[in-house]
Amino acid sequence: MPGHSPVPRPAQPGNPPGPGQPQPLDSGTLALAALPTSPFWVRRYTRSFLDSCPGMNEDTAETAELLVSELVTNAVRFAGNPTRTLRYSERANASLISLSIRHFRDGLLIEVYDTDSNPPTRSHTDDYAESGRGLMLVDALSKEWSYFFPPGGGKVVYCFLEIR
Ligand SMILES: Nc1ncnc2c1ncn2[C@@H]1O[C@H](COP(=O)(O)OP(=O)(O)O)[C@@H](O)[C@H]1O
Ligand SMILES: [Mg+2]
Predict the structure, then answer these.
(1) Where are the domains of the chain?
(2) Which pLDDT band holds residue 22 (cuts at 50, 70, 90)?
(3) Is 149 touching ligand 1 by the criterion CB < 6 Å?
(4) Ligand 1 midpoint to CA 122 (Å)
(5) What CATH code would you report for 30-86+93-162?
């Protein structure tokens, strides 16, 4: 896609941008256990974070909520904990997911970390009609999306949502 300004290079959620990288106007992170309730909480967090960003428009905020929800739903589904077998005493060891949102003048950089090291690409075994819509949506709504493997393991799936 033709870009006028470079998309900021993603970092591991929570890490500040490196030297020479654009500074966000606002940034926020949320880490939580990977449970079926996580998409609800990250949506809520995203909404309150974006409401606190001066000048944020409603269209961008709604799209960001949708993107975050798809990415976190995947993180829970593919790296999450089976709630039925996760006792309260075991929840301290639950796998974590984390969300980072950075607000730049021209867009939002959304990153979702999970502990699974498989890339977010469809395998042949899950090649049925209902699967694959989430990332199609991410692809359609963001300027760019991809993933990377941070040195400590797991992966980060990120997307950049342009502010028009
Ligand atoms: N965070 C993730 N970790 C591992 N695999 C993933 C992740 N996100 C997506 N995938 C893979 O990419 C496929 C497509 O994801 P998606 O488009 O959201 O469809 P769905 O969630 O309905 O399967 C998934 O079925 C899965 O195989
Ligand atoms: Mg999905």
Answers:
(1) 30-86+93-162
(2) confident
(3) no
(4) 6
(5) 3.30.565.10
